[in-house]
From TrEMBL:
Taxonomic placement: Bacteria, Bacillati, Actinomycetota, Actinomycetes, Streptosporangiales
Protein name, per record: Tetratricopeptide repeat protein
Domain of life: Bacteria
Alphabetized InterPro entries for the sequence: TPR-like_helical_dom_sf
Source organism: Actinomadura soli
Gene3D superfamilies to which the protein is assigned, alphabetical: Tetratricopeptide repeat domain
Length: 82
């Protein structure tokens, strides 16, 4: 069974493994989509992976804001707390 087949079958860890492979291949958009899907399914480590991905993909400010404030209900980075 490939990572894609396992992810399609609902194996959450396979989503993060597949995301990492896409990240290594430079397909950051697909990696982010897969990390988000894994996070939505309850894989909390995918949130750390998502922040790191944004930093490595050339958006360190977004990665830092993500680490500090998390995501809102729509999946966007939360605004700073006041």
């Amino acid at each position: 069974m490939t990572f894609k087949e396992a992810a399609d079958a609902g194996h959450i860890r396979a989503l993060t493994d597949l995301a990492w492979l896409r990240e290594e291949a430079g397909d950051y958009a697909e990696a982010e989509r897969l990390y988000r899907q894994a996070a939505d399914a309850g894989e909390s480590g995918a949130l750390t992976d998502l922040a790191r991905l944004r930093e490595w993909a050339g958006d360190p400010e977004s990665g830092e804001r993500f680490r500090r404030f998390g995501l809102d209900a729509e999946g966007e980075i939360e605004a700073p707390w006041e």
